[in-house]
Amino acid sequence: MYFELKENKPHGTKDDPFSTYHIKNKGRSFQIPVHWHDELEIIYVKSGFLTVSISGESYIGKAGDAFVVSPGSLHLMGSQTGTVDYFTFLFPLKYISFFTDDMFSRLQCLYGKRPVKMVRRCDQNHVNIRRREEFLV
């Protein structure tokens, strides 16, 4: 990790570490220097063209494009034409989590209703979804 490139600007507050930035630039080229941070960043291009480089891969974003920058990834953004309107959203990765099971799925599993293509092994605390082939011996 390149510690000297870490962005040390606080994003949000301790209680609400979420930040939104709106950058609207007209007529002057610019570049946000290469940096990284601990937060997840989503970049949304509202209009114009935005050059985005993430972990060494460069992209040209146009209106409606979005980019996701993982925590710790070196990235930069800028515009050679200078005319761009974009938003960045920064927040801790823990703000998003994905569950493949919910209460309805748990009840289905506990009462014996199983999907055709998947077999579920369950107990009162959790549901594990496994491929049917794993249970065939």
Helices and strands in order:
Blueprint: E1 19-25, E2 30-35, E3 40-48, E4 50-54, E5 57-61, E6 66-69, E7 75-79, E8 84-91, H1 103-110, E9 118-122, E10 127-131
Give the overall form.
globular
Give unreliable regions as ranges.
Answer: 114-137
Biggest β-sheet: strands ordered side by side in the sheet? 1-8-3-6
Figure out the total of helices.
Answer: 1
Order of helices and strands: EEEEEEEEHEE
Question: Residue share in helices?
Answer: under 10%
Largest beta sheet, briefly? Answer: 4 strands, antiparallel
Q: What portion of residues belong to β-strands? A: 35-45%
What is the distance, rounded to the nearest whole angstrom, between the alpha carbons of the first and last residues?
46 Å
In total, the number of strands is 10
Structure description:
Helix content is 6%, strand content 43%. The protein is mainly β and 137 residues long. The strands form three sheets. A four-stranded antiparallel β-sheet has the order 1-8-3-6, with no helix packed on it. The longest helix has 8 residues, at 103-110. The radius of gyration is 22 Å and the shape is globular.
List keywords for this structure.
single chain; 43% strand; 137 residues; four-stranded antiparallel sheet; 6% helix; mainly beta; disordered C terminus; 10 strands
